[in-house]
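Changelog note: in this version the structure field was regenerated for every chain. One regenerated record is shown below for reference.
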Amino acid sequence: MATSDSAWTLENVSELRTLARERVPVSIISLKLKRPIEAVSAKLAELGITPASETGGA
């Protein structure tokens, strides 16, 4: 699982912030960025961003 430790590029972080701002669930962000859910959650926590709920809501 070396990919979970791969470096976050500025572009990756920018996309992560954009998706989080759009309230995209972590599971979907994980798929879009091709990173494990744990890595996405950890990076969001590091950035101080609260992820969207996995249970949809309109």
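Spot check on this record: The helical segments are 10-21, 26-33, 37-47. The two ends are 35 Å apart (CA to CA).
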